[in-house]
């Protein structure tokens, strides 16, 4: 229990200057490409992420895909967003975390009740 509190203190940007510096660095890198932190979640990595993305409204998913395509295009051209557009970006505005937490709670509840999982991973 004490170790989890220590980890939380170490990773909290409000209490640890190094964590705050790391967060600022990540924020600047995401801004350069016009991404949000939630855009970095890969739906192929976890079925929970895929399910959460499937439950989001179509407009949000389309905006996510546009940001990812723009970031890949900028990266291939070795360019960044213009400074005025970078200033408008808010990298840590979350759109996926709440839905992901809901999916994980439902999964835990299903396991606690002994029900079958909603989706099962198959290896091709």
* Span of the ends, CA to CA: 40 Å
Strand content: under 5%
Question: What general form does the structure show?
Answer: flat
Main sheet overview: none
Rg to the nearest angstrom? 18 Å
> Average pLDDT value?
88
What structural class is derived from the secondary structure elements? mainly alpha
**Strand and helix order:** HHHHHH
Assembly of the depicted chains = single chain
Polypeptide structure, described:
The protein is mainly alpha-helical and 124 residues long. The protein contains 6 helices and no strands. α3 (47-55) packs across α6.
Summarize it.
The chain has 124 residues and is mostly helical.
Would you spell out the secondary-structure blueprint of this structure?
Layout (H helix, E strand, L loop, with lengths): L1 H10 L5 H17 L13 H9 L2 H19 L6 H6 L8 H17 L11
Helix pairs in contact: 3-6
